[in-house]
Amino acid sequence: MNRNRKTWSLIAVGIFLAACGGTTSGSSTTAAGGTTTAPPTTAATTAPTSTEATEDAFKVAFVYVAPIGDLGWTWAHDQARLELEEQTGVETAFIESVPEGPDSERVIRDFAQKGYNLVFTTSFGFMDPTVNVATEFPDVQFVHISGYKTAANASNVFGAMEEARYLSGIVAGAATESNVLGFVAAFPIPEVIRGINAFALGARSVNPDAVVKVVWTNTWFGPPQEKEAADALLAAGADVIAQHQDTTEPQKAAADAGALSIGYDSDMRAFVGDTVLTSPVWNWAPKYISIVEEVMAGTYQGDESYYGHMSDGIVDIAELSPLVSAETKQLVEEKRQQIVDGTFQPFCGPVIGANGAEVVAAGKCLTLGELLSIDYFVAGVEGEAPAEAPTGLGA
Q1: pTM for the full predicted model
Q2: Mean pLDDT within 325-341
Q3: Candidates 3.10.420.10, 3.20.20.140, 3.40.50.2300, 3.40.50.2000; correct CATH number of 161-281+315-382?
Q4: Where are the beta strands (DSSP E) in the chain?
């Protein structure tokens, strides 16, 4: 399989994909200079004495759905923004905790009106507002993260996090003693379900007795709910906690209970300690830098749809904890290399559904469209999913 940059388009089922990173309920904004309770306002980080972008400089704006301090989804995006500044010297600005809906459209439009050349919007719920504003400002380039709609000057970007999820599943499956893995999950939509399934497939590849118990929080950024869900899973016998959430609360809950965990979005071991065995991580900086350089050179394809892979560097796993055995480390590295080489994909058959159906036969693999619309659990996952596993998928 060619692991170089790919273009793709989503079918109608993509409509119910939600933001990786999600929404917050507040409208307060925390920017580089501090916290304000007013509606979101711009904060040009390279020009701290002014909220207006510098005249004639190439200006890049970022619209965040959660606070940078989540140490997860938004934090990872902001680390990329900082690296973008350092590597290219462009001027950047950001706004945190922007609610999806009318507020986000207003914020996006405000950046365009203030002369920003490129605007990154980092939540699925910003998709329609991004496209709406793009049609009003044809000379501004917009890049939306995780969506599927495009315009002449509005592209979208995402990546195959299922690859890193599979590897983290190997780590968890090898580490568990109870054979119960807990998964704190945001919403039952394809992006999250895809990750849970890949995690389970990885875990059961080394430990066929492992089960993954799922608790839905119905929030992306909700520290109390995340902790409560993790505590419930720990009480149900889980000795390794994984997640698709924005914060480190599940990892903290696991550490407090003497259990292990798998982080997400960023290297959460750096914030919690060695009980975080690894984390599937996003590395947005190379893609952001590439886009900025192409836009500045006039070579960027404005309506591009990009789905990157581990071979591109956009997804990976963080450094493994010292608590991970040497044998597991070697296995993870071997499997990682196979993913990078394109000789292994997590969702190649045989893949069996939680209901016993043969979803993918041996010799076939789920297509990208099937991955992006997945709404069922595979064998070994316990919890509520929107649908039962079908049969006969893959190509």
Answers
A1: 0.84
A2: 98
A3: 3.40.50.2300
A4: 29-31, 34-36, 59-63, 91-95, 118-121, 141-145, 154-159, 180-185, 211-216, 240-244, 260-262, 276-278, 280-282, 305-308, 315-317, 351-352, 358-360, 381-382
